Amino acid sequence: MKDRLVVIPTYNEIENIEAIIRKVFSLPVSFDLLIVDDGSPDGTAQRVRDLQDEFAGRLYMLERRGKLGLGTAYIDGFKWALSRGYQYLFEMDADFSHNPDDLINLYQACADGGADVAVGSRYIRGVNVVNWPMGRVLMSYFAGVYVRFITGMSIMDPTAGFICYRREVLEIILHNPIKFVGYAFQIEMKFTCWKYGFRLVEVPIIFTDRTRGVSKMSSRIFKEAVFGVIQMKISSFFRHYVPRKPGITAQEPVDAL
Q: For this UniProt entry, what's an example GO CC term (predicted)?
């Protein structure tokens, strides 16, 4: 039975892609990999194809035409994985800002710890970010404060992109369209899981800024996150969320609608 799949979106990650693939496949717990490449002109997809014979049955790729957005890359990857029976689905960056060793901790939080969603959190134990300028650290941290204030969630790192989902979570939340494509996508996914009453747990990680390649952050993506949170909260008043988990605790509230 297919058990664990890591989805990694890529655009111009030729400097990182082979190293991240080999690192994931070297872990003591077995993970399959799906690369979702948005037509990288630097040859990222070709490098993945070159490795598929070596890692046959474990390394897969979806090739898309052009930059279609982080959110749609993950959604396409999740749907691909669900159709093939994977039980635990992970999202992770290609640039080593997320340490692949932490995949095991995220998996254990769901498989052994009872979480439905395990979030690799930079802020659950202080501020664990390496190589970011102070301005970006403060922007990221206070973005979390802002999201908690608007949404009512208690998640310390709502914009985190290093996550493990149980398949039943994605089977439920992907029935409704996810509207955002950038960092607001990460917030919307957590908010939707929380509204349905799934148990979200934060697992401490150390986030290290990329040393190779170019960051995909832009002012447009940041604005989407800022204004999208308000839009998302208002829209939630017009949707009915049926709690999917019994025994919701005070730390895992479901808004009354």
A: membrane
Extents of the domains making up the chain: 4-236
pLDDT reported for residue 254: 32
Exposure string for 148-179, b = 16+ CB within 10 A, e = fewer: eebbebebbbbbbbbbbbbbebbebbeeeebe
DSSP state string for 89-116: EEE--SSSSS-TTHHHHHHHHHHTT--S
Cα radius of gyration rounded to whole Å, the chain? 17
Tell me the residue type at 1. Answer: M
pLDDT tens figures, 143-186: 889 999 999 999 999 999 999 999 999 999 998 888 887 778 99
Tell me how long the chain is.
257
Mean pLDDT, rounded, of the chain: 87
Q: CATH assignment of 4-236, given 3.90.79.10, 3.40.50.300, 3.40.50.720, 3.90.550.10?
A: 3.90.550.10
Nearest CA among 214, 190, 219 for reference residue 97 = 214
Contacts of 123 by beta carbon, 8 Å cutoff, 6+ apart: 141, 144, 156, 157
- What is the largest distance, in Å, between two alpha-carbon atoms of the chain? 52
Dihedrals phi, psi of 246, to nearest 5 degrees: -75, 160
Number of neighbouring beta carbons within 10 Å of residue 39: 15
In order of 17, 158, 224, the CA distances from 251 in angstroms are 38, 15, 27
- pLDDT band with cut points at 50, 70 and 90 for residue 253: very low
Q: Give the pLDDT of residue 180.
A: 84
